[in-house]
Amino acid sequence: MLGFAASRKWVYAMPVEGSLRHLRRGTSLILLLILFVTPWITVGGHPALLLDLPSRRLFAFGAIFTASDTVLLLLMLLFLAFCLFFFTALFGRLWCGYACPQTVFLEEFIRPLERWIEGSRGVWIHRDEATWTLGKAARKAAKWTVFGAAAGISASLRLRLRCAPIPTILRTPLPGTSTPALPWSRQAYDERDGHCKGR
Question: What is the DSSP secondary-structure string of 104-123?
Answer without folding.
Answer: HHIIIIIHHHHHHHH-SHHH
